[in-house]
Amino acid sequence: MDYGISKIIGHEKSIGFLNELFVNDRIPQGLLFYGQKNIGKRLVATSFAASVLCRDYSYCTGSRTVIKENPENPPALSLFEEKDYKDPKNEESGNYKTAGAKTLSGYFCGKCPSCIGVLNETNQNLIIVEPSGNSIKIEKIHQVNSLLSLTPSFGGHRFVIIDDAQAMNPNAMNALLKILEEPPDKTVFILISPVINGLLPTIVSRCSLLAFKPVPDEVLFDAFKAVLTETPDDILTVYSRLAKGSYSNFEKLAGGQYFETRKSILTLIFNEPFYSDPALLGYDMSDEFNRVLKNLNEKNKDKDNENKAELFEIFLFILRDVYIYRMTKNKKLLYNIDICESIGKFIKDSKITPQRLLNMIELTAEYIDKTGYNLNKTIAMDAYFSDILA
């Protein structure tokens, strides 16, 4: 089985940059991965750390599974099958190419104690920090500092991955900054955030920045066509568009829950009162959204904020498609391309002006941004619908 960043789709440029750092032993002590949520940043971070730790284990313990070293560049070696290092042009001679090691250095073996620890989340040289609730508090950063004071289990690097780093409160950010100012030797911090401006500029300045872009639709299509061989191409095309550049979103779509939730929202939007005058719906629409949300929460327990964000993102992208199609009549620009006819009928029958649609889109995006805060959820939703239907 192959592991590691060489098997991750859609982020070749970022992975190439990390491989160069890996091969040349120039890994900085601060990295900041930023870009749209749920497009693979954490997976790349964890796989990169695992690859480095796998190599470290090999060199620190002398138990590498590769029989021969590349004499020109030993640090480039990672643990995977010896045949992958051989020069295909001179296989009988047993020569090993630096170029081959560079292109394949993103693997980790998945078998050594270090890799098993990563896969089981028990490797002491890999610390992962993520929000509790909606924030990362200073206590978590203090815990990291305490762990870093201990001797690594087998020497080599240590990695601290902070997911949703923008969720750190001010005290936590200041505590992290102090560590970054004088980081422990061979300790690498990887911060993951959808945006840069959610972090202290002094933290950002101490990190090498790596931008991640959404995975292209055609890449997602090809990846899933190889797995979902019996799924029609037109369905895979819809999945690819709705995934919005996210492999994990694509998997959720294939599970069918998205379409069930979207159907409930379409029932609310594509009805006569909304066509004629949304204000007539009043708080009834808030009640209906709460009903849909309740059903979603029952299927995905303990994920209230995520469920609410997902629900309103579906609503947002339907509104966005209605606006785009009304202004351009180009269905190729739609995310929900499979309901193009319903969108066209809505535009024909509706009295909602383009400006009104824009206002609704802006208010919805604003509300989604607020779902992560500690608000009274019922009051906040009622206020949202009061504004959007006014």
TrEMBL record:
Descriptive protein name: DNA polymerase III subunit delta
PANTHER family cross-referenced by the UniProt entry: DNA POLYMERASE III SUBUNIT DELTA, REPLICATION FACTOR C / DNA POLYMERASE III GAMMA-TAU SUBUNIT
Keyword match DNA repair: no
InterPro entries xref list: DNA_Rep/Repair_Clamp_Loader, P-loop_NTPase
Coiled coil ranges: 286-313
GO terms, biological process: DNA-templated DNA replication
Pfam families (UniProt xref): DNA_pol3_delta2
Superkingdom to which the source organism belongs: Bacteria
Keywords: Coiled coil
